[in-house]
Amino acid sequence: MSNLQKVAVLGAGTVGSQVIRLIEESQAELEARSGAKLEVNAVVVRNLDSKRDYEIKRELLTTDANAAIDGADIVIELIGGIEPAFTHVKRALSRGATVITGNKALLAKHGAELYELAEANDTDLYFEAAVAGAIPIVYGLRESIAGDRVNRLLGIVNGTTNFILDQMSTTGATYEAALKKAQELGFAEADPTADVEGLDAAAKCAIMASLAFHTRVSIDDVEVEGITGITAEDVAEAAKNGMVVKLLAVAQRRGEEGILAQVYPALVPNTHPLAMVSGAFNAVLLDNESAGRLMFYGQGAGGTPTASAVLSDLVAGASHRVLGGHAPRESRYADLPVLDPSMAQARFQLRLKVAERPGVLAEVSSVFGNNGVSLLTVSQDVAEGDVASLSLSTHTTSGAQMDAVRRELAESEVVLSVESVLRIEGE
Amino acid sequence: MSNLQKVAVLGAGTVGSQVIRLIEESQAELEARSGAKLEVNAVVVRNLDSKRDYEIKRELLTTDANAAIDGADIVIELIGGIEPAFTHVKRALSRGATVITGNKALLAKHGAELYELAEANDTDLYFEAAVAGAIPIVYGLRESIAGDRVNRLLGIVNGTTNFILDQMSTTGATYEAALKKAQELGFAEADPTADVEGLDAAAKCAIMASLAFHTRVSIDDVEVEGITGITAEDVAEAAKNGMVVKLLAVAQRRGEEGILAQVYPALVPNTHPLAMVSGAFNAVLLDNESAGRLMFYGQGAGGTPTASAVLSDLVAGASHRVLGGHAPRESRYADLPVLDPSMAQARFQLRLKVAERPGVLAEVSSVFGNNGVSLLTVSQDVAEGDVASLSLSTHTTSGAQMDAVRRELAESEVVLSVESVLRIEGE
After folding, report:
1. Between residues 283 and 302 of chain A, which touch chain B (CB distance below 8 Å)?
2. Threshold 0.90, pTM exceeds
3. Inter-residue contact B121 to B95 (CB < 8 Å)
């Protein structure tokens, strides 16, 4: 059997052009590692004349995706978004090609169908690049932790929001100013919605939760709260208390009962391993039954780091085609119910503006008591005129209970405004 | 084909007994994940009546290793040390059994022969548990980073020395007192030589370097310096400069020229990701060509965490036996020369006792200059009588040059003693 493997790359943007460069530059090494001679024989682009980060041989460029797919043993999909990526990936898998994708949106939405198609056609689907750039969390969950039980997964998996929150924390900037800075520096897109509303993190959360809990989890199962409501005051108050604000992807297993998947901004103590994850870096923490805590840390985005993840998949995929074996199949035997995220327990911190008069603290406290939420700390700032600022933290309670507290506080006549409600991560 | 896989466990100590417990307790999960029904049918021990952490069914226990190996599809070797482990593992591989081992000493010494034997018999050798307990660094290097080039690897991979150095750092204890504490708490053995002299870290360094650089590296290739020379003064001086002392395993590639592997105690700035790795935790940092910096962090030892690593290998190994495919073979195509470790470059910090009289600083400085080493900082403490303490740090220089400086300082009549010479990690 020839060990030649023809590779089609769909999309030659930031990641795609680096993938092509690395395949060309490290051909001998990749062959030594995979047993396969890898040859890129088509690069599908929308515009043949676009300027690219790496100059691709003109004869490889094509706009005909179907012909490229049909001529390939291995298809690398780096277009992003649902269509036409979905159609292309289905076509490739149906023809028995190995597919490598970095498309989190596609997987979080249609992962189940793609897995089934790969299995039905006796081929493999790889997606290390879809979650947290260069960090090998897909390998970690699919293989490294396969002999253990993951209880909880906690990640900083979106570089844009991490950059914005960092800016706010280090410079005291408002959310709007920090977003503008991020856009100027190319860390945020012109339309930043997918990042700042937490949707990108939610897609990654769904993919990681599926792998961690051997259960299908789609993006629609993830409760999402973004960072657009985070204010300079939230960040300053956090700093005062030795904490930072981070956008977290959180997935957890409640025994045999089911799983919970959420994305939300939270207060993270400075002593927590995730507190030091700054800028474009990502990290994923796993709390496991036997292994205890594991952390994976690295660059969460960028052309070259993400291309590195694609190339690892390429070595594995090519090796399996030439030497036999398969990528791990979809593991969904546990088939745990996805629970209502409002059941998830957490500690909360609230900032309120209240009327400055006797009896207010008792009234506010009673709202928590009425809803079965116990307070851990209460502190009141010096009043400005007849308005006082209250900062309260709770013992562990459910999101549903906090929602009830929040509603009742909003209706209370002594509460002028609920400035913020944030979860606190860690002990 | 039956999916039953018979497992023999050699050794039922801290890790072995947890492995047996986990296989028994999670049989259904392991079958769902691997496709194989796993049955422990022999546990080889030296003494049938020893008390164990987990009560093993009496009928499984045996002292006959050969019979146990011959009756098994998968052999898990957790005896440790070279013999009889080496003989047992060779027997198992020769019979085509899959071998899973946590034996770093064996691999660092005879890994090449075992790899060849596995390949010749078309079977697999797994060893995630041999390096850094629960941290999946073997998976990381064998698979996750297979599409990239590792330039440098930096690890805290020995929990005993990390505990001792932590104790010294947090309590101001001497090395001897911290070692005694570690022994009392079970973090250090009665004979702590392998840990404190850096030999355990060196074995792990050799294994990781082999995987990272696709080159055979044995423990004899690793330059080793332990922590027995570290004093309370070293630790206090480090703290004064915003640093901590850590025992590091360091392996690096110098382009096509070759590789270097070393274990030494170094000064690590508090802002460095490895500075926060305390107590029984381990971490490995990889600096890669495309992916940039990746870090893996977790528990480096202990029965249950290490058993988790064994079970991941068990799932992979059993799955390959039942569903086809193989573990990655030994990858040594790069076959880079292992260079003389004294070529390795680093910044150094020295503490000297010198005579308190005019011209001393000039004389000391000239020793560095004569050997082509430039000084970065020099500070002198207030003299006690006619003895002054000098603290100096250098620009990047080679170990060989520093050895020359050290020899000349020792002979200088103004230098009363060279108190310590430590490398500084990071920028």
Report:
1. 288-299, 302
2. yes
3. yes
